[in-house]
Amino acid sequence: MKILIIAAHPDDECLGMGGTLANLSEDNNIEILILGTGIASRNIQNKNEAIIKLRNESKKANNILGIQRIYFEDFPDNEFDTISLLNITKIVETYIEKIRPEIIFTHHIGDLNVDHQLTHRAVMTALRPIGNYSVQKIYSFEVLSSTEWGISESFQPNTYIDISDTIKLKEDALREYKSEIREYPHPRSIEGIKIVAKKRGMEVGLRFAEAFQLIRDVRK
Fold it and tell me: ∠ CA 34-35-40 to the nearest 5 degrees?
């Protein structure tokens, strides 16, 4: 299967579904599109160097998960709302037409982070089921320190993937994101991530799981 993950920032893909990526990478063609720079909104001196460093961290992290192909775009960090939705959608459409995925994973519409919200909207706009349509399933994932802080629309998972055998790979991959991981009790900490994986696993009788919301399921 061809699978495309569309995320706003480097580390979102790993936070949201690192264990699942490790599960799926052996038997599927997985590619990742990162739309934003992910760090440039912070008060740092050399933003270009920081962006390059973060992208290198992303490549190392995803290599641990078995993912080799990552595409980076340059939308401004935490400022997707300064770009027209049409422009973001056009970029997303370009990759969908190029890759022609059968499954897509992206952000939840109710995330607190505006870049996550607009990524979701752009993806859903690009995935209007017209023309030579390839996508069979669309899922949203949760990103700690964004999904649980949103209040407009809660994340309601209806799909769970067992990551009991890959939780350690997810932890190892996230440790490569040295500029992004925080200390507990911040939700974007190794311990916080493991707690949520336990909680999601407990909801369906597993040791560790990642949760997703199925948005569209086309069966032929």
Answer: 100
For residues 63 and 58, what is the distance between their CA atoms, to the nearest angstrom? 8
pLDDT at 64: 98
**CA-based nearest residue to 112, from 144, 84, 83:** 144
Q: Which domain holds residue 114?
A: 2-217
Instruction: Measure CA of the first residue to CA of the last residue in the chain; give whole Å.
Output: 15
Q: How many CB atoms lie within 10 A of CB 43?
A: 5
**What is the rounded distance in angstroms from the CA atom of residue 24 to the CA atom of residue 31?**
11
pLDDT of 44 reads: 72
The domain total for the chain is: 1
Confidence (pTM): 0.96
The answer to whether 15 and 174 are in contact (CB under 8 A) is yes
CATH number of the domain encompassing residue 183: 3.40.50.10320
Q: What is the pLDDT of residue 43?
A: 64
Counting as low any pLDDT under 50, the low residues of the chain are: none
Output the CA torsion sign for 90, 73, 189, 139.
positive
Beta strand spans in 8-151 (E): 29-36, 69-75, 103-107, 137-141
Contact 6, 35 (CB under 8 A): yes
Assigned token pair, 68: 């080799």
